[in-house]
Amino acid sequence: MRYAATTSLILLACLGALLTGGASACAAEPFWAFQPRDDPLLPAVRDRDWAANPLDPFVLIRLQEKQLLPAPSADRRLDKRCFDFGLRACRMECKGGD
Fold first, then answer.
1. What DSSP state is assigned to residue 67?
2. What is the tens place of the pLDDT at every residue in 34-70?
3. Number of domains, the chain
4. 23 located within any domain
5. d(CA 55, CA 70)
6. d(Cα 64, Cα 70) in Å, to the nearest integer?
7. Does residue 56 sit within a domain?
């Protein structure tokens, strides 16, 4: 019930702002979500082969700035162990321990 009342108050405040001239301010500066997306240039990194997805060069450039090396990739066995451990930990949290 409280959620519905809060939502109603927010909607009324927005409607009031639109009626008192808020619409002209909104039209002057379009909302950020409706702007066309621009793809940023990928940073120049030393080890281009390390990047497995478009975000990796950004991570790698920060590591290189701090003179750090990325961790080696885990093998399939270790990935499976981590995944299984995560599932067991999640199951234990849902049950409340043990």
1. T
2. 888 888 888 888 888 888 888 889 999 999 999 998 8
3. 1
4. yes
5. 14
6. 9
7. no
